[in-house]
């Protein structure tokens, strides 16, 4: 970390994904904060996936700043349709590299160091420390871990042997996925309506979904198969997709399965986290997937990450002296842990529903709708001003 200007609070952010960069975009507007982001990859690469950002994500971005929302909108395909339940609000243009670039443009030059992988995080006295794989060690007033599912920050906060540290995949989901030009997808005879939003076709041996990317020029299509108990998040090792298992699925579903089978470019296991009992320890805190990785079935991981950033960003307005850091982290934990962990649970429930294994819910469309309305309402129709106010109230009580 560069030498901080006198009197500023030094914040080291580990991880330059959505959480790290969105938080940076907020902190950059605070004259009393000196932050730096350490990102392990040498550069952002296109992973060919897409992110659907729901209404709560949009509200969270606006709380951090209009410019954050604008950075996303520039790269996004707007799919808002109030008539559709769980309607996707915005699809990012094409994989995380595009939204990363948009957010990077909001940060002053030089505040992100790439190719810097944290090996461990810790604290000695009042000094928070990050040790990197290359042997360098930096000191800061606090560390915010935004380092994703396999977070080293999480291992420090919970203790390396805590059962909730590692990634989980209790339901054994394996995702087989392909991205192809939209014209090619249409040539499979797909109904054009499926190529303009994010359909989810449920079934007991796997659910199929597709998502338009790159402003509708590409289609990402995949099948998520439950019960394949591979090591969480491990790439490779899964058996090839067997399309004969889906002979009783609908014609539309079979077309999409064929698309994937013809060029199964990608296959990976899903991962989530069991609940962490706390999101902070002393001068070290975790946000985003580091704190609460969730299955993507409710499409809300990035949204929850952005909600974290909105709260931490608001609290750090008031972190004008070092003795306030831990109070801000505790207030963040109070305001964000219960809600974000409920969304982890909801994401598991969506997975069971899509795989027809959530009791008999799938047999009754009215009950399914009611579940989706309630769960979608919880994730998306939230008053984030109130969430920020609750965090500030908790913080002020601790002062
Ligand atoms: C298939 C799939 C589909 C999804 N779809 C949606 C969706 O539609 N809507 C939605 O809201 N969410 C979705 N999500 C979830 C969303 O992608 C994540 O919740 C979000 O990316 C979390 O952001 P993050 O910055 O917290 O973590 P990450 O995106 O994981 O970023 C962590 C960053 O930290 C870096 N890093 C890791 N370890 C270290 C280290 N030791 N030192 C330094 N840097 C490190 C990584 O390189 C990375 O850049 C989906 C997830 C998946 C897997």
UniProtKB/TrEMBL annotation:
It comes from the Eukaryota. Residues 278-345 form the FAD-binding domain. The keyword S-adenosyl-L-methionine does not apply. InterPro entries: FAD-bd, FAD/NAD-bd_sf, FAD_monoxygenase. Keywords: FAD, Flavoprotein, Oxidoreductase. Pfam families: FAD_binding_3 (PF01494). Transmembrane segments: none annotated. GO terms for molecular function: FAD binding; oxidoreductase activity. GO terms for biological process: secondary metabolite biosynthetic process. This is FAD-binding domain-containing protein. The lineage of its organism: Eukaryota, Fungi, Dikarya, Ascomycota, Pezizomycotina.
């Amino acid at each position: 970390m560069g030498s901080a200007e006198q009197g500023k609070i030094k914040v080291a952010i580990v991880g330059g994904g959505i959480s790290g960069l969105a938080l940076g975009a907020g902190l950059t507007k605070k004259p009393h904060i000196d932050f730096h982001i350490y990102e392990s990859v040498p550069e952002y690469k296109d992973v060919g996936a897409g992110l659907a950002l729901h209404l709560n994500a949009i509200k969270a971005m606006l709380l951090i700043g209009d410019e954050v929302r604008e950075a996303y909108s520039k790269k996004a395909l707007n799919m808002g349709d109030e008539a559709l339940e769980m309607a996707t609000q915005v699809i990012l243009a094409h994989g995380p590299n595009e939204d990363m670039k948009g957010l990077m443009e909001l940060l002053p030059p030089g505040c992100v160091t790439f190719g810097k992988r944290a090996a461990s995080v810790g604290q000695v006295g009042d000094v928070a420390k990050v040790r990197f794989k290359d042997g360098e060690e930096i000191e800061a007033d606090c560390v915010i871990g935004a380092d994703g599912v396999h977070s080293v920050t999480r291992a420090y906060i919970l203790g390396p042997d805590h059962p909730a540290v590692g990634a989980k995949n209790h339901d054994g989901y394996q995702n087989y996925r392909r991205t192809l030009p939209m014209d090619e997808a249409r040539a499979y005879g797909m109904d054009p309506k499926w190529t303009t939003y994010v359909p989810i076709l449920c079934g007991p041996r796997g659910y199929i979904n597709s998502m338009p990317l790159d402003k509708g020029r590409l289609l990402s299509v995949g099948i998520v198969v439950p019960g394949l108990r591979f090591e969480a998040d491990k790439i490779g090792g899964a058996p090839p997709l067997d399309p004969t298992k889906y002979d009783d699925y609908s014609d539309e579903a079979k077309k999409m399965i064929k698309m994937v089978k013809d060029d199964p470019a990608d296959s990976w296991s899903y991962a989530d986290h069991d609940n962490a009992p706390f999101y902070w320890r002393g001068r070290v805190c975790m946000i985003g997937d580091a704190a609460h990785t969730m299955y993507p079935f409710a499409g809300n991981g990035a949204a929850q990450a952005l909600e974290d950033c909105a709260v931490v960003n608001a609290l750090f307005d008031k972190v004008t002296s070092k003795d306030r850091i831990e109070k801000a982290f505790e207030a963040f934990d109070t305001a964000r842990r219960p809600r974000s962990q409920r969304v982890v649970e909801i994401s598991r429930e969506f997975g069971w529903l899509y795989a027809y294994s959530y009791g008999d819910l799938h047999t009754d469309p009215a009950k399914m709708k009611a579940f989706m309305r309630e769960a979608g309402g919880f994730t998306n129709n939230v008053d984030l001003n109130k969430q920020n106010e609750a965090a500030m109230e908790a913080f002020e009580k601790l002062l």
